[in-house]
Amino acid sequence: MVKQAISRPRARDVETVHLTPWDLRRITGDYIQKGVVLPKPSAGVEHLASSFARAVGHFYPLAGRFAVAAVANDGTESPSRQPGLAISLRCSDEGAEFVHAVAPGVTVADITGALCTPRVVWSFFPLNGVLGTDAVVDPSLPLLAAQVTDLADGVFIAMSLNHGAADGTTFWDLFNRWSQISRNKSDISTVLPLQIQRWFHEGCPLPIPLPFAKVQDMGRPFEYPPVQECSVHFSPESIKKLKAKANAEMATATISSLQALLAHLWRAVCRARGLAPDVETTFTLPVGCRTRMTGIRKGYVGTAVASAVARTPVGEILGEGRLGWTAWRLNRAVASVDEASLKVELASWSQNPSFRYSADHVPSAVLMSGSPRFDVYGNDFGWGRPVAVRSGAGSKLDGMVTVYEDGGGRGGMELQVCLAPDVLATLVADEELMDASTGVGVIRSGMCTGGASEEGLCRCRHASVVQ
After folding, report:
1. Does the pLDDT value for residue 420 go beyond 50?
2. What residues form the membrane-spanning segments (predicted)?
3. Is 80 exceeded by the pLDDT of residue 122?
4. What gap in Å lies between CA 136 and CA 88, rounded to an integer?
């Protein structure tokens, strides 16, 4: 357990950070788990541990712990007919976990050379299987953990972060800071000051009372169904073509590159699933709120993400000439998330909290996480840029799509798609989808199963653990 390596004035009372509706509604989910594959390191693990400690010092609330207290369910000090509780973040500097592991039988090519991600990769992440609420029930559980896994010819550097404490923007800000400190062998003095205190809508009760008698009632452990995931890359040129086609079909210029690409994938997933035309399918996108809300300054540490949901019958997005209409559904869903609607939603939630659970996921849904704006491939720790990015076991739902930049710096994107094994095998054999991606010759066979042959699609060197 590493402590922040930055000296701070010791306050008489430990700083307490109240959690927002954005924070609390994600505390029932898995930890955020992302990591990068790097070439053979020239620095020792002690250097990585010390640079991690210095980075944590800049994000010191993440080295704290959750605290829970009983409150009146109506948000006042008066007696309530129904007991409630409140969760806060105590900046107590109890530390972030740092794990050093070795996997001498795994090479970089084992990870990057397989379209289907080998299941062994999930073991490169700390705090597997831990829900955000588990860190409330058990105060010994950290909110943040890092793992450095030595490979045969490289290293895998990963972090796991409680989603109730912060979101993907804060996650990658911390990851970037860690790599900068490691690369420069010193703290970065010319960085934007972090905004530790959370943003609340007007009239929000502090703390927000939650309708549970005890924290254990909040968590719902979920056994994920068997899934496989693959990474598909799209070049800047292919994305530009999709964007142009989508905008032309709708006689507009407002459909973004990401919306066009996700529409292309959404259609392919519906085809691969073999859904009936009258079945409703949904696509849920994260919408960053830092630039949408007045009063949230740059460097905000916490969760500031809403969701946009596009809904449509499957039959309306399939067929020739429907890319633009599908992308327009996504475009309108994102456009509907503005400051006014967000304030209404936040006020409603704080008065009647509700939570999302993996068990509520429906088989016709697609969910997106991540962003092509996150600086993933800039995480050079001092001996070279990452060669790949992968995610952990958390949130591996059938239909989860994680979006990354492709590392080329020219506007390409990488989609990591998680689906049921038979559906994924059909997806990667979909010519319409794959003709827009790079590496079509590799994935034409469409064999994406744990038992794929050497000449098949997956080339999964850990076939025994992929299933």
Report:
1. yes
2. none
3. yes
4. 9
